Amino acid sequence: MPAALIYLGIMLAVIIVWFLLLKRPVYEAVLISFILLLTVTGTWGNVLGYIDTGLKTSLLYSMTAFCAMSILLTKTKVIDSAIAVILALLGRVTGGAGYVSVVASAFMGALSGSGPGNVMATGSITIPAMKRSGFPPELAANIESNASYLGNMIPPSGNITAALGALTGMAAYGEGYISQAEFWIVLWGCSLWFILQRLIMVFIFCKHYKVAPMSKDELPGLKETFKKGWQGLLLPVIILLPFVLDYFFKSTFFTARLGKDGAKFMSSSLLIFIGGLASIYAVIIAKDKKKVTPHAIARMFADGIKTIAPAIGVCVFGYMIGALFTDLGVTDEMLTFMQGLNMGRFGAVLFICVVTCLLGMVIPGSSLVVLFGPVFITILASKGTSPVLAAAMLPCICGVMCGITPPLGLGMYAGMSLAGSEFGKTFKNNLWWVAAQFVMEVVVLMGFLPILGL
What is the rounded distance in angstroms from the CA atom of residue 83 to the CA atom of residue 117? Predict the structure, then answer.
């Protein structure tokens, strides 16, 4: 058996025992895995170098900035008005409440970065509306939870910075291989197909259950809603526009004025800069100014430490394990092992999608991206998949699948609590959504669909 498989087995066993059986935080499990691997491999002499690698990764600080932004957006409720606008636009069509759930939850999930939190926030509006339109409770719960977890693969989700780090942290590619803006464009290109897939499934289920449009009495007036909520609609523009401009005008406008290095460093600073800018804008437009006083914001972030710290801890320790694995040649050995299995491209894609689905049942998606991302990218790239596409799909095959697949699929449980649905019926209905997600993963990774930015 290759040593790489033994190392991965040790890490996986520790995470399962510590996180799943003992119910301890996953960042503790990753740290213990790192310590145990140092001991088994006799590499304690290099530990300071691994720690340095984990702490100096710039994407780590970008992730912190966006986690802080998500707390601010969630607590101030500045995007609730944007959800109301979507409801006013789509609620009038047959099954409109379901379409609103997909669009609004994907939008909210991308900004909040919290799957279960997003289910509770948008689901409190969309799930009752779906049930009143004739959606069965179990279907309403699954539409909301599956749409909410799309946020894990739509920028500026925190999983995305980890995926970009997995790609640019590899010696074969490096930080100059692709800019953040270019990577985001590809991610949006992938996300559009999964949003479309969920909208089609809502359409099919609406036909099956003969659901109705939302009652006119429940729908907010578009003119009045837009008047109240237009400021919230500018948030995605503030967040996304700089990356679009950087993607389309970097080689012409910005490079000509800032020079090649200046344009490069401007691109690399966008993630940190935009998170802060969006946070400032959210404070300015917040309706309840009592929630955005210096004391209230300080208290907000103090309470949110429990949300930020675990994610950041997993990334730091995961990057440290990644540096250790680089020294040990784990990725190269895994690639050699996979090539020995004589798998073609379809076999490799299918294998990795199955592995991430199974691992996602017990390990959080963000951890999978950090710990196994470079291995997955290398294997897929060796079989003909674009390394950029492989990296862009990491938040999908790890983060999204993890969120919708029990027993770790917390989104389903959050949706059940709001919909009042039975576990058995909700679980059976959820299998349709998991199966569709799996098929779409294979289709996209095989390159059967055109992807924006590639």
Answer: 15
